[in-house]
Design goal:
five-stranded parallel β-sheet; 22% strand; disordered C terminus; 12 helices; five-stranded mixed β-barrel
Length: 438
């Protein structure tokens, strides 16, 4: 009898890639993949532990499996499984805890379990990159893991502890992975890792790797996921002249205060970040630069916070992900004086959120009357197509009969509001009236 398996992914795109690859491997073994809220024989939870809130969400999901089917096999993997491995192994609701080093062995763990073997996930070989190209994923875009781990040791971050030191995937494997997913029919690949700019394998750095990826034949485009603002050469920006490389980067600022960046042990200054932002925006018209900001870091004064606000306004981000500083055990920041009260963190977070919403709206308005190449990701309840343009902005094409995972050239006719501001696209030579969606 075919067994049912469900997956839940929390956290970063690296986790999303790994879940996609694991799920695809199970599908090839004749497991039936079902939604996580449905009854399944196996639940795999790929966790995040970057903040206290991430830990809380991961624990809630683990408990959720017991409410759905208490007899199911529950496997917890990911960063929380690494950070709290011994603690989770004592949880009676969890059958196997698989740390990041052994995440590629999840299928082997399940198969061994159903053969009646005594299974210890640590018995399997460690391999950070042994993920086969996924032909069936939970996304229209294909995520491509090129790197793992980090050597920066920022004072607030536990990623080096749960992901290990920086390690780069062999370039030949990356090229082969991309060629396969393009053959599978994917139209967009997203390069992902912990610290992409520090990619270094033999004679390949990040710039050379991306340059050769862009030369791979096929009708697809390349997007770069979250990246640190250090580690790649200034000449990298010239690559955005290539039509396959999308004009969008999510680069983590974290703070606009030089003093706070120093306390965070970030590998750049606010001034250098601003100069880099200007060069990126000059590389292609309308370049979409998005970022992360942490508010309430220990010792952050009102003046430090105002510097972050002013720098954000000058740069004009397309979007800001805001995080309230969260104490992580084992980090240097945990031991720092002048911890900020949560009330102050919440107030500063709300201020950033309001600024981010205004900047997002202002940025998206600039596309009205311009053209975008949209990759359709889903069809809504009205039968209209929704996807993302080159600049990673959501676009709705108010026409029925369009297909997922297909490029459509559109002209932006307006802006509409649903869950967030969306551009309204009209296909070339065909006019459709933009209708406001409530």
């Amino acid at each position: 009898m075919t067994k049912k398996i469900a997956f839940k992914t929390l956290g970063c795109r690296l986790n999303l890639f790994e879940t996609d690859a694991i799920a695809s491997a199970f599908s090839k073994k004749d497991f039936q993949i079902v939604d996580f809220d449905q009854s399944a024989d196996v639940y795999v939870i790929n966790t995040c532990t970057v903040t206290n809130q991430s830990d809380s969400r991961s624990r809630k999901v683990i408990k959720q499996t017991q409410r759905i089917n208490k007899n199911a096999l529950t496997i917890v993997t990911g960063c929380m499984a690494t950070n709290y491995k011994e603690q989770l192994q004592q949880n009676k609701d969890i059958d196997y805890v698989v740390d990041n080093d052994h995440k590629t062995s999840v299928l082997s763990v399940v198969e061994s379990h159903y053969r009646g073997e005594i299974v210890n996930p640590d018995q399997f070989e460690k391999d950070l990159f042994d993920y086969a190209a996924a032909d069936e994923t939970f996304h229209t875009r294909s995520l491509i893991k090129i790197q793992d781990g980090c050597d920066n040791f920022c004072t607030f971050c536990i990623i080096p502890k749960v992901r290990g030191r920086a390690s780069s995937r062999p370039a030949a494997e990356i090229f082969e992975n991309i060629k396969k997913v393009v053959e599978f029919g994917f139209k967009e690949v997203v390069l992902t890792g912990v610290n992409l700019g520090r990619y270094n394998y033999e004679d390949y750095n990040f710039e050379k790797l991306v340059e050769e990826i862009l030369d791979i034949p096929g009708d697809f485009r390349v997007r770069i996921s979250s990246i640190e603002p250090d580690g790649y050469s200034e000449s990298f920006f010239r690559l955005f002249a290539h039509p396959k490389l999308t004009p969008h980067m999510h680069i983590c600022l974290q703070s606009g205060s030089e003093d706070i960046l120093l306390k965070m042990r970030r590998m750049y200054t606010a001034q250098l970040f601003e100069e880099m932002a200007g060069k990126l925006k000059a590389s292609r018209p309308g370049f979409n630069l998005t970022t992360d900001i942490i508010v309430g870091f220990p010792g952050e004064t009102e003046n430090d916070f105002q510097q972050t606000l002013e720098l954000s306004k000058r740069i004009g981000f397309g979007h800001i992900h805001t995080f309230k500083y969260s104490v992580r055990k084992g980090t240097r920041a945990e031991r720092m004086a002048d911890q900020i009260p949560d009330k102050v963190k919440s107030s500063r977070s709300e201020t950033i959120r309001q600024l981010a919403e205004k900047m997002k709206l202002d940025y998206r308005k600039t596309f009205v009357g311009k053209k975008q190449k949209v990759l359709i990701e889903k069809i809504d309840n009205d039968g209209f197509a929704i996807g993302f343009g080159d600049h990673y902005i959501p676009v709705i094409i108010q026409e029925q009969g369009l297909e997922r995972n297909t490029f459509y050239d559109v002209q932006i006719s307006g802006l509409t509001l649903k869950d967030e501001p969306m551009l309204v696209g009209e296909r070339k030579k065909i006019k459709y009236k933009a209708v406001r969606i409530n």
